[in-house]
Specification:
129 residues, alpha+beta, elongated
Length: 129
């Protein structure tokens, strides 16, 4: 049982130190980040916490980066009611359908689908081959 943290459901605090090197300049950057988790130190030691953190970034890089680069999501002006959530869901659906169809490059797959109306309809079974 931890005695250093008085916060509901928090079991441990951790610190990650990162070093990255910019490929174009070679400049080294150091960063220290802190985290809080409800997992006890018995359930999540240092290796487990690092793995969980890396998986978080794989989601960020695999989905959110793609949504922003392919759909320019960060500049979307839809703000009212559930519009932003609906658009995010539609973007996720499009990405999932293209990945299920075997698309390697989502940008190329989106361009391919944009050139002819039946192509995206085939992905959801509304148009024949």
């Amino acid at each position: 049982m931890q005695d250093y943290l008085d916060f509901p459901y928090a079991a441990q605090v951790f610190c990650l130190q990162r070093e990255t090197t910019a490929l174009n300049t070679g400049k080294l950057r150091r960063e220290t980040v802190y985290g809080v988790t409800s997992l006890s130190s018995q359930k999540a030691g240092p290796r487990c916490l690092l793995s969980l953190n890396r998986r978080h970034w794989s989601i960020e890089n695999g989905l959110h980066y793609v949504r922003d680069m392919s759909f320019d999501e960060d500049r979307c002006r839809i703000r009212k009611f559930a519009g932003a959530q609906v658009m995010a869901s539609l973007r996720n659906l499009a990405i999932s359908l293209l990945r299920l169809a075997g698309a390697v490059s989502l940008a190329a797959a989106l361009r391919f689908c944009a050139h002819a109306q039946p192509r995206p309809l085939r992905l959801i079974g509304l148009a024949s081959v």
